[in-house]
Amino acid sequence: MKGGKPMATQEDISPYLIFDRQQWKKLRASVPMPLSGEELERLRGINENLSVEEASEIYLPLSRLLNLVVTGNRKMSETTGLFLGDLNPSVPFVIGIAGSVAVGKSTTARVLQALLRRWPGHPRVDLVTTDGFLYPNRVLEERGLMKRKGFPESYDTRRLIRFLAELKSGREEVTAPVYSHLAYDILPDRMQRVRRPDILIVEGLNILQSNRMDRLSSPCLFVSDFIDFSIFVDAREEDIARWYVERFQVLRRTAFRNPASYFHRYAGLTREEAERTAKEIWREINRPNLKENILPTRERARLILTKGSDHSVREVRLRRM
Ligand SMILES: Nc1ncnc2c1ncn2[C@@H]1O[C@H](COP(=O)(O)OP(=O)(O)OP(=O)(O)O)[C@@H](O)[C@H]1O
Ligand SMILES: CC(C)(CO)[C@@H](O)C(=O)NCCC(=O)O
Questions:
Q1: pTM across the whole model
Q2: Residue limits of the Phosphoribulokinase/uridine kinase domain (predicted)?
Q3: Is 2 exposed, middle or buried, given 0-12, 13-18 or 19+ CB atoms closer than 10 A?
C-alpha cells in the first residue's frame, strides 16, 4: 500500500504496515466532501477536546478504510448468496475497539460512529460497550471481585459471546445489559436493543482476549471470532495514567457531585487528595489490568492507533491482512 512501510523490527515477519501521521492523513485524499459544519458540531459534542484536525486527518481516513472494508465484506456475502442461489440478507458488520481504561476508546468509537453514518450504504451504526457485560456488583461482591472490575473474571464473557453470536446469526433484535458509571453498577431494569444495524461498534478493553474461562465455554468460541475489524488504541502508559487522573479530577467537579453517584464521597476531596486516590486506583487496578490482560492482545488487532501525550495519533499500523 502507498505510503506505508513495513515494521522496522522483525521486518520479515511483521504483518503490519506503518504510517506516520503525514502518510496516513494523505489517505483521506479521495474523500469526496469535507465534514459539514453540522457534522463538526456533532463531533465536538462527542468530546470538546477532540480537534477538527484530528477528526479530519486521522478518523476521516480511517472511516474511509472501514467503509471500503464493509463494502468488500458485503460483496463477499453476496457471493455466498449467489452460490447458495439465495440472496441471504447481510448480517451486521462488527468493528471492535480495544485498549486500556482511559486511553480514549469511547471517544474513538463515537467519532467513528458519527463518521461512518455519513457514508452511503450503511447509515445505521450502533454502539455497544462491553461494560454492560460486567457482572453486577452483587455478584462481584460475592466473588470478592469488586477491586477487579475490568479484569477478565469480572465479565460475563459467555453472555457477551452469546450476544454477538445472536447478532451474527441474523436475529431481528438482540439485547445487551446496560452499565452505569454513575451507579457504578449494571442497571437491573435497562436493556439496550440492537436491531440489525448495518454496523455495530463494540468497544471494550476485553474484546481481543482469549482467557482460559472463555476457552472452557462450549462451543469453543472467542469474542474476537465475531469481530470483522479490530482497532487497538495505544499510548504510553505514563500518558494514559495522566489522562486517567485528569478525567478523575473533572469527574470530581462534575459527575461525582451528583448525590446519586456511587463516588459522591470523592466530590468532597481536595485536588491533592483526589490525585492521590486516582493514582492509587490506577496503580492497584487499571495498570495491572493493562499490563497483564490488555497489552498482550494488542498485536491481535487489524489496526493499531498510537497516540502521543496530547491524544493526537502519531502512528497507524495496519495489518496487511
Ligand atoms: N481524541 C481525543 N482528543 C482529546 N481528548 C481525548 C480524546 N480521546 C479521549 N480523550 C480524553 O481522554 C479521557 C479518556 O477518554 P474516554 O473516556 O473516551 O476513554 P475510554 O478508553 O473509553 O475509557 P474507559 O475504558 O475508562 O471508559 C477523557 O478525559 C477524554 O476526554
Ligand atoms: C468499567 C471499567 C472496567 C471499564 O470501562 C472501568 O471504567 C472501571 O471501572 N475500572 C475499575 C477501576 C476504576 O474505577 O477506574
A1: 0.93
A2: 94-238
A3: exposed
